[in-house]
Protein 1
Amino acid sequence: MGVENNLENLLKRYNIKKPDTNKENKFSMIAVEHLIKILNDQTLIDHHNTILKGIKYIVKHIGKDSIQFLPMIIPSILTWIG
């Protein structure tokens, strides 16, 4: 529950609206959203490098359609780095 709220708070802090899901990006959106939730959970820090690799894989294979996910991904990565 805390992980869910953490993602929602992060999106609100940066005034980011979740991308609309359509048939083409539904599963990618779900995967990215859950990977970001894990990335925002400090109790799972041992898995963060693997999560970043997973996000990178999804973005690489979706190609230009992944642009819609970047506003959701970037703040979490910046928070993780900083």
Protein 2
Amino acid sequence: MKKDQFLQIVRSKAKAALTPEEESMFGAIGEGIEAALQAEGVERAKQLTAISQALGTVDNGESLAGIVRNLADQVQKIEDRSKRGMSASEKLNLRKQLEEKRDEIIAARGTNNGWAIEFRAKRAASALMTTGTVLTGAQAVNNTNVYDDMEVLVIQYPRNFIIDAIGGRQVANVPQTWQWKEETTAGDGVIGAVNEGAEKTLVDKKMVWKYAQRVKYAGRIEFTMEVEMDMEQLLLQVVDMFEQQVLRAWNAGVQAAIIAWAPAYTSTGLDGFFKSPGIAQVIEAGKLHVSDNNYTADMVMINPVDAAKAMIHQNADGDIVYLPEAVAFGGLSPFVTNNITAGTIVVGTSNIVKEQHSNFIVRRGVYGDQFKENEETIIGEVFSNLKLPTVAQNSWVKLDVPTVLAALTAVGA
């Protein structure tokens, strides 16, 4: 009941046209009725009773109070009728069971005998996500004062390595094969000083084709339509969690490829230089290793355990000094992740590695018996192609912490 509808009823019941003052007064009453009808059952009845007690007569034998009480009764009846309805799945199950009992029902009607049907709106779902599995541990709450918070607290994971560390580029179509030319030193001449009239050195430049193949990172989830009907917002969050899971698998795959591609530490001028080296010195040795090959390292991939150790220095007496991040990581940008095992550190030049990827692709459909079982499948996938040039392999280095610590420790220290 809106304010204007209430005024229209008042005008139809009044003996004469309402004055401006009466229009204003009844308009205010209409606003009160509109607010009261929007309240819950008990509060609504209380507000309407207060309004009806304050109203006067409009026509002989009928009062505004009576109109308000009649409106309240109509709203209550409508609310009672709408409290319980059958869902689409319940109707489908009921229709099926009625059809199965058709002959018994016809026979019972013909003899005026009583009949009964047992109705169970239940099915065994083969989907991975049913209401029970999504809401594991849920229980009935016999309390009307409940706030249903559908926000899901999720497990935390590190930021996107491909985007934040190596600057992967999204493209409309990821190529199946990525090919590029690399220089090879085989047959190269040596440039040097040449005397007047002497023959110049012949420099033989050779190139070789290199290739990278496209990789697909994908997974799927299955769910019943009841989950979507009853918990739409929760399903959206589950799909978002599924998307993040696919993206993490993509990140882990790219990181694993880089770790496998990076060459191991051999030696630098820091070998045998320290009395008591730590993780910070291992990172510095990796930075120098890259510099010795004419590249400039700008990032370090490191496990959370080793990252914590890098910022702690302990002398022979056990005294601890906490190092600032810039010192602990030698000015490199740290990327802390559990995708690299503790005891292994990778230092590298981020712009040497190239990557192309698609956006996150979602496909929705059914397969097998899912259609008749009221289930659906969502597939999520990312296509990626990673360029790891062989000629620039020494722009990265993989450091085995115990091995490098032993190499850095001075003899007799």
Protein 3
Amino acid sequence: MKKDEFLKICRGLAKEPLTAPEEAMFGAIGEGIEKAFELDTVERNKSLNAITEKLGTMEDGKTVASVIRDLATQIDNIEAKAKRSLSVSDKYKLGKALDDNKELIQRAAKSKENWSIEFKARRAAAIMTSSNMVTGTVALATDNYLEDVELMVIQYPPNFILDAINSRQVTKVPAVMFAKYETTTDNGAPALTAAGVAKPLVSKNFAREYFYRAKYAGRIEYQEEMEIDFEQLLLDVIALFEEQVVRVWNDAVLALVLAYASAYTTSSLDGTMVNPDAYGVMMAGMAWGAGNNFTYDELLMNPADYWALKGTQDKNGNYKMNPFTAGFAGLNLFLSNSIPVGTITLGTKQSIKEQHSAFILRSGQYADQLIENEYTIIGEVFSITQLPTIKKASWVTLNIATAKTALAVTLG
């Protein structure tokens, strides 16, 4: 706040033109304010309080003191926002974004056109602090040590949604999706018809089925000191957090598909195998699908069942080579510990549709986080899965033990 700017405000608030003494007085006050605004927050407020205590009213309900206090509040707010500057990692990402778009910016500068760059700054959530972030510290009685900078993380299965069902990313996921499906309540049917005879009357029936959007989200919180002490580790934590939210989404959709799959009942292979194994169960599932006019291309198994299948032996203990071992009969194999042990699920990715948003990261502060030097990162993804009832037979789950019993030849 400059002296001249303060005088302009005073003249605007005055009911009558300022006299020469008033101009001189407010000019002196303006000089004091100009100097006060050059100080830090604490000293500035002391100086302004001393000034405002001596000022009177310029108009009803409005004082010069209140004007000065308003200006001081504005300066405080500006400084508070300025302190929330980009971190080193954010500056690096912004710098890279600018560098990647250098040619675009140069062209825009020459043409005077508007331009924009999409930049997502990833900051980092109990509250992560320098003291609780890394545990297991011990005293080392030697200077001869080396820190392995590679972060060791928990291993998880691949993404089921992207690998095993018909999925696509969209800009905005609708709240509700509905589709019309043919029902089995048709009236009449086409038939061989003789000349001169009325053709059979056929009417079709359809029903709407509704599907609803879901959101999978979480948050992490951390202290600013945590970022200062472990900046690179914090970036790794944010990446792990993102993967964690994606896994929750992945497992949720997988659970929907497993619940949607029909239960195996019987097939043309029942009672035809002398020594049925898990491969025989798989073949029975394929036969069941064919009986319902579906050809399966996806195979879901628990890793325990997969390795039991790979380790099949004959009665002498020799490992057997099964013709399905190499390619699982053209099936896309998906292994996950989220799939119940003792089951095999088969299906086709063409029958299920899923739409999802990009993974969204937001950072900010709430409650007392600003004054406590804390930050919050929110991660979320929106998803909607279309599981048509009319195509339930496109996925089937078989209990391995039960199916083996049904496949075995009855000796008598």
Protein 4
Amino acid sequence: MTNFIHLETKYLEVYKNEYLSTAFQREKFEFDSIPTNCIFDKTLPGLGATYSEIEAKRNSIIIEPNIPVIDGKVNSHKNLLGVYEGCSGVKIKNYLLNHKIEHKKILCTPEGYLKVKRIAEKNGTNIYENYFLLFDECEKITQDVDYREQISLPINDFFFSK
């Protein structure tokens, strides 16, 4: 038997020279950012979807398809943690347990997500209850899965986490 998930379609008008965060505020979205449990389909790049999540007043794990995007955002915003090959488990643990950072923002590759998940579980952090998951540029999964087998691993967590 196959289970289907039905998502309600909502439209959000973004005016010329406006970022999504402004449109979210105008429409009174919770957290002034992307709603939970949705697939956010935007046609135009550069509207600030990832930026709105970095600024959202909640903990977030943002999965990015490649390292230069992560490095660019980590270098231009404070209190972000970039996780990909070479990021130590100790660094992730220290970030997760740092009480001075009110809203934690972890940017990681799909492969790095598994490391974050494992270390969070080991240290008593429930990412399903305490973190918003943004899978940025999700079209890259279908484009890159032939040579990056692990790129699709976070999908089950995205759709089926409790």
